């Protein structure tokens, strides 16, 4: 569900203690939108479950993106960041453990970058590397 301005979002009953609507909203900083946010409870349930497994903070580099911000940062035209997807920083995490846990918790779009893990929930599972990221995932 698209919220045009995250400040207008009624967060009463928010049940995902490790995340806030603001950190999952567009990070363009008001340049191209008023703070778009996409509310998806199922996605948040999976993210919170992953956070519990990881046992440490999941830093969201990128969550929802407004249209202009998405193209500005080089996102795919039909990127799930236009609805809800997250890029989680890999700092402080064992990347392989985080990947396995993400898969276990129902994330089906798995983008393996050098410094972050992209997660989304799509009907047909997909897993990919970003240019130059493959070696960082070899152990
Ligand atoms: Zn924006």
Bound molecules: zinc ion
Q: For this entry, what is the oligomeric state of its chains?
A: single chain
- Stated plainly, the CATH topology is called Muramoyl-pentapeptide Carboxypeptidase, domain 2
Fraction in helix: 10-25%
Strand order of the largest sheet: 3-4-6-5-7
Task: Give the structural class.
Answer: alpha+beta
CATH class: Alpha Beta
Helix-strand pattern: EHEHEHEHEEE
Overall number of structural domains: 1
The low-confidence parts are none
Per DSSP, the total helix count is 4
Mean pLDDT: 97
Count the beta strands: 7
Query: Overall 3D geometry?
Result: globular
Terminal-residue CA separation: 39 Å
Strand content: 15-25%
Largest sheet: 5 strands, mixed
What CATH architecture label applies? 2-Layer Sandwich
Estimated radius of gyration:
14 Å
InterPro entries: Peptidase_M15A_C, Zn_M74/Hedgehog-like
Organism: Hyphomonas jannaschiana VP2
Domain Peptidase M15A C-terminal: 17-120
Pfam families: Peptidase_M15_3
Provide an overview of this structure:
Helices cover 24% and strands 17% of the residues. The protein has 139 residues and is an alpha+beta fold. It has a single domain, classed as Muramoyl-pentapeptide Carboxypeptidase, domain 2 (2-Layer Sandwich), CATH 3.30.1380.10. The strands form 2 sheets. Strands 3-4-6-5-7 form a 5-stranded mixed β-sheet, with helices on one face. α2 (41-54) packs across α4 (95-104). The longest helix has 14 residues, at 41-54. It starts with a strand and ends in a 10-residue tail after the last strand. The mean pLDDT is 97. The chain binds zinc ion. Residues 26, 28, 32-33, 36, 66, 69 line the site of zinc ion. This is Peptidase M15A C-terminal domain-containing protein. InterPro entries: Peptidase_M15A_C (IPR013230), Zn_M74/Hedgehog-like (IPR009045). It comes from Hyphomonas jannaschiana VP2. Residues 17-120 form the Peptidase M15A C-terminal domain. It holds the Pfam family Peptidase_M15_3.
């Amino acid at each position: 569900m698209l919220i045009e301005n995250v400040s207008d979002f009624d967060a009463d009953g928010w049940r995902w203690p490790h995340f806030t609507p603001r950190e999952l909203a567009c990070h363009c900083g008001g340049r191209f939108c008023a703070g778009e946010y996409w509310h998806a409870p199922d996605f948040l349930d999976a993210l919170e479950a992953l956070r519990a497994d990881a046992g440490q903070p999941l830093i969201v580099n990128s969550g929802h993106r407004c249209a202009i911000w998405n193209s500005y940062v080089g996102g795919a035209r039909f990127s799930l960041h236009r609805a809800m997807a997250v890029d989680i920083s890999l700092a402080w995490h064992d990347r392989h453990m985080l990947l396995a846990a993400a898969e276990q918790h129902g994330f089906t779009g798995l983008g393996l970058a050098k410094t972050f893990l992209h997660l989304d929930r799509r009907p047909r599972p997909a897993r990919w590397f970003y240019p130059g990221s493959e070696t960082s995932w070899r152990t």
